[in-house]
Specification:
By secondary structure, the protein is mainly alpha-helical. The chain is built from 6 helices and 3 strands. The protein folds into 3 domains: 63 residues, no CATH class; 32 residues, no CATH class; 63 residues, no CATH class. Helix content is 36%, strand content 7%. A 3-stranded antiparallel sheet has the order 1-2-3, with no helix packed on it.
């Protein structure tokens, strides 16, 4: 993101939060609490990426979808009891618990390409290429542009390897 070059993260957070307030209004009145830190601070310091689905938010705003408290006390059949005593019947319950990379659990060896938190184990800009054809894209907390940039590096590297492996070798006729 270009703003990173000119402004500190906390200023970018303030600008983005003002824009979100202008577009979405007070999301807390619909049951959606904002995190304690701004979205870019969160992205830079954790493996979480705050996302707002505008279609879902429109349905929440219209009342078609209702946000309920997160603390569930119990489930019996279709009935869900919440910690505050509310009970509601549902056809389906979706637990949106977030995403955590499990790559470190199944990948035998990455030579430090992937960190313990599932993100890139190496610093930008040398984070995308590992050993034995292993690559890493979009894992350095640089958003969609960072993923795009990583993909370009990876494609270029693979292209160079393909070009060098397809060059004919000359046999000088000696045995």
């Amino acid at each position: 993101m270009t703003l990173y070059r000119y402004l500190p993260v906390w200023v970018i957070d303030k600008v983005v939060l003002l824009m979100c307030a202008a577009v979405f209004g007070d999301t807390a009145r619909y049951g959606l609490r904002r995190p304690a830190v701004g979205p870019f601070t969160m992205k830079a310091t954790t493996t979480m990426y705050p996302v707002v689905d505008v279609g879902t938010f429109a349905k929440i705003r219209s009342g078609e979808i209702r946000v309920l408290p997160a603390a569930i006390k119990g489930v019996r059949g279709r009935d869900v009891e919440f910690a505050d005593g509310q009970r509601h019947a549902f056809d389906a319950v979706v637990f949106a618990t977030g995403y955590r990379s499990t790559t470190k659990h199944w990948l035998k060896s990455d030579d430090g390409l992937i960190g313990d938190d599932g993100m890139a184990g190496r610093s930008y800009p040398d984070h995308w290429k590992g050993e034995n054809g292993l690559y890493c894209a979009g894992m350095v907390r640089r958003g969609i542009y960072g993923s795009y940039e990583d993909a370009e590096h990876i494609a270029d590297d693979i292209s160079k390897q393909l070009r060098s492996s397809s060059k004919p070798t000359h046999n000088n006729g000696s045995a």
